[in-house]
Design goal:
16 strands, three-stranded mixed β-sheet, Rossmann fold, globular, alpha/beta, 11 helices, seven-stranded parallel β-sheet
Length: 327
């Protein structure tokens, strides 16, 4: 499918538009000529107070900016007023460690926020509003917990953290609204994604430390593995889920199908960046998932989607971006 042909002049709302993946998605949609509204954390009561930390350059090109906490009921009314044809719901508390110390905040944002988006698309008769054509709800590979084999969509959900549980709840809540109210839902389950503008998780942290020639700290023995997908490939996955007819009512995993040990990730980053950093081991992290590897066969079968950027190429791109940001 030609994304530009599909998205041109479409009214699209991106929640979490100034986050890591949300900012890349917003940028791409605008490049295709979509009429993009951005929902970002802020306070509409005080006159749309917000800070688009990743996409200030896009402010003149946005159709509108909705500054609100997605977990507040105000968000529901503001989405109704916006009347988008397509919603990409990415707004979330996505830092796993935060769910250990602030679980209520994480669950409120991830579950109540999803509920607000879904409820905004129902009319007073509990029917889908006439303006909504697709709602892409962002789930997570963390809903699966640890599995020894590459994970397909038939695997049971064993979230090992409050964050994973919140995403599992949001995932199944979205499906229930497809099943009960016939909302046009598509659920994307991204495996670990990295690239420019990412600020937490291993790749950006390791890159920052490597460029400073500081010790790279790893939780446990570093043998835990992750399936790392470069952000450009994952944005293609979002665009597919927002446009393809076969995505309706489906939950689909997106990843490379190859996992890398965290200690090898650190070694690769040190080598590519020509760093003098050393690897230092810390005690294991709470509820650490030992292996997360995607089986992307459903995505390939339904849409012909495949990740194209290798881990080596992606890390090189990410490191070059980080160097430019430092001047």
């Amino acid at each position: 499918m030609n994304f530009e042909d599909f998205y041109k002049d479409k009214g699209v709302l991106v929640t979490g538009a100034d986050g890591f993946m949300g900012s890349h998605l917003t940028e791409r949609l605008i490049s295709y000529g979509a009429k993009v509204s951005a929902l970002v954390i802020g306070n509409s009561v005080l006159g749309n107070v917000y800070n688009l930390r990743n996409i200030p350059h896009l402010i003149p090109k946005l159709n509108s900016i909705i500054a609100v906490d997605v977990g507040n009921l105000d968000a529901m009314e503001l989405i109704k007023k916006n009347k988008p044809e397509i919603i990409f719901h990415l707004a979330a508390e996505a830092y796993v460690n935060k769910s250990f110390t602030q679980p209520r905040e994480v669950i409120r944002t991830n579950v109540d926020g999803t509920l607000n988006v879904l409820q905004a698309c129902l009319d007073e008769h509990l029917k889908p509003v006439d303006w909504i054509k697709r709602i892409v709800c962002t789930s997570s590979s963390e809903i699966y917990g640890h599995h020894d084999e590459p994970i397909d969509e038939s695997f049971e959900l064993y979230p090992s953290s409050p964050y994973g549980a919140s995403k599992a709840a949001a995932d199944r809540l979205a499906f229930s609204y497809y099943n009960t109210f016939a909302l046009p839902i598509a659920i994307i389950r991204p495996f670990n994604t990295y690239g420019p503008r990412h600020t937490y998780d291993a790749p950006p942290k390791f890159i920052s430390l490597a460029l400073d020639n500081k010790d790279i700290t790893i939780y446990g023995d570093g043998k835990q593995t992750r399936d790392l997908t470069y952000v450009d490939d994952m944005i293609n996955a979002f665009l597919v889920m927002g446009s393809h007819q076969k995505a309706l009512g489906e939950a689909v995993n997106f990843g490379t199908g190859n996992d890398v040990a965290i200690i090898d990730l650190a070694k690769n980053i040190i080598e590519i960046s020509k760093s003098k950093s050393k690897i230092v081991h810390l005690p294991p992290r709470l509820s650490e998932v030992k292996r997360l590897c995607c089986n992307p066969s459903k995505a390939e079968k339904l849409f012909g989607w495949k990740a194209k950027i290798s881990i080596e190429e992606g890390l090189r791109k990410n490191i070059e971006y980080a160097k430019k940001q430092r001047g």
